[in-house]
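Researcher: Please translate sequence to structure tokens.
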Amino acid sequence: MKKWIIGIIVVLLIAVAVLAIYRFNFSKSINQDAATHEQIAAILEQNNCMMCHSFEAELPFYGNFPIIGKTVQEDMNRGVRFINLGNIDFEHINEANLAKLEQAMMNNSMPPTNFKMIHWGSGFNNEEKAVIANYVRQHRAERFATGLAAAKFANEPLQPMIDFIPTNPDKVALGFDLYHNTELSADGTVSCATCHPLDNGGVDGTRTSEGIYGQFGGINAPTVYNAVLNHVQFWNGRAETLAAQAAGPPVNPVEMGEQTWDDIVNRLKSDEILVARFEQIYPDGLTEHNVTDAIAQFEMTLITPDSPFDQYLKGDMNAMTAEQIRGYELFKAHDCATCHVGQAVGGQSFETFGIAKNYFENRSEEIVYNEDDNGLMGFTGNEQDLHRFKTPILRNVALTAPYLHDGTAQTLHDAVITMMEYQTGAKYNDEEVDYIVEFLHALTGTHPLMTKEE
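Model: Translation complete:
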């Protein structure tokens, strides 16, 4: 038995020595000024990141050892829930994954200490950190920055919001009327504004919305404000565009009734004035495509710039309170800004809900089972997508309670604590939570139709 243990130790020491020599030679070959996607992929590979951050990763031999085996398996499961490096195109990396790489590099959180004890030499060295920092800065500036931030904030993971998106005014006016038109529903009682009232932050303030015939949906209705900035629409991403999203609820039996778009178009055509308006704007008149296009054009105008946070990032250091500034720093320190990124402060990626702990096993409120509660898997059917949801936009979040996809968090304070516990596993105290909540209030922007006071 003693010889067996000594043999394993010798093998591990030899492996460590080989790895150290290999890592030394690899580091010497790094050009710190370069920041190509090939170099980033190589750095992550050399640091064994794929061992915990890929669904294709195989359990190492020591993963079956007593005591440490359980820790190894937990690390692998948690790692791939946080980021799956196996399917990232580093040339076209999304904004959230870019922020995750940056955060791991800045706070030395990856790989964890217990991993480095076994895989000596793992962990980004100074040369690798320089390459990653250049890569992040370059991609953020070229692909994600709005160009509105003051120089000192130009490379922030969060960006000032643009002031407007070009639209067709005639289509916008038509879309506004259609958004409020109850004739989209089978019984003439429900419009888009029923579940997304514009004077209430774009939400109805209920856990799940009430549709036609008093039926309730299975998921919390997100705000329509700034929805144009989402990379896809719906919690499970089943619609790629605003127009595709607008096409869904009218034919949903729970939301607007069991009907077809032919039924809806024929009903709308009974309004001669409406038909004439369509014919003036669209060559082919009133059609499903043109109805959803007009609604989408209107929703493109529902962006809410000029929040205190926007003013702060643009250089007005007095736009936010000291508490809000402290909250922003904590928001970043606790990794919130690795998923809630960009000018929308979210909406750019799908993330597993329950990275640190299993939210669904511990959820105290009983939720009637529905596919919406499965997240992306309900759309793709892929088990790897179970409980992965589109990260919600946090703009105007102080106006859009209740929170989470299931609407179970009644206040921002509740939501922040839940995310700390189940997403980051971070240690926190009430004072820190209060600071973060103060920061979230600074994300409330302006829009003529958004008149609700906090």
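Researcher: Any highlights?
Model: Residues 149 and 430 are 31 Å apart (CA to CA).
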